[in-house]
Description:
The protein has 271 residues and is α+β, with helices and mostly antiparallel strands. 24% of the residues lie in helices and 12% in strands. Strands 1-2 form a two-stranded antiparallel sheet.
Amino acid sequence: MKKLKYHWTKDPKGQFIDGHERDDVRDGDYPCPSLQEQKTVVWWHDNETAMPYVKGEGQSQMVADLVSADYRWLQSPDGKEEAHVFFKAGKNHEGYFTNQDILEQAQKSMDILEKYYTNENHILVFDNTTTHLKCTDGTLSARNMPKGTSKAETNWGVEVNIRDAASKQVYGADSKLLKGKIQMSDVTFADGSKQSLYFSEDAGPKAGLFKGMAVILHEFSTQACWFMDAYQKGLNGKQAAWASKKYRGHRVLPDSVLRDLDGADVWCDGR
């Protein structure tokens, strides 16, 4: 059979879901198949196109859980706390299993492990492609950033799905997910200092607006000049960070910076 490029498969029919109305299923009496009720095995030739069965009508149900060869399903020893998630999928029911749901399930799983199984190191393995690409909402990225400063009516931000109080995605009248915008996270430099991508609240008419790549890069280059000049004057990282904030309006630091450091007591131990 192998030389003729045949292979075998099982008929996927025969699975029941909650709400089935057959008396034998409802009462738990499962009859043994007779000779006339034997299963059908279909043999497909390598050149033949397989025709899958069309999914029948009925509510889709999803179960997501974590299992281990040592502990079986992840739960507390008394079984009162468990990691499994069971819900009815669909936009008209409980939505779909999103990255946020995966994060919440992972957090719940880690809480159980840290509470009851502290004598071992645990690794959670997920087989879900979307989690490999997911970043936190607002994660720093130059993708799609506009060059110029945004206008008030079209302020640039990161598009995210709107969620209700129960953290479920919200759908509009057109059955599409409702979207909203949030500000992108600040830039964090090696010394711990931050650079906001949006104008501060005291920036007048531009308050809260996205600065634009041109302004952001200009600010970055200015800060780089501050640090290079500070290092040339013999300052360390902590002192350079302090001086860059104090003289943020200058491209280079004044010669009096060393006296100012004395007055501000910014010198590190071992001067």
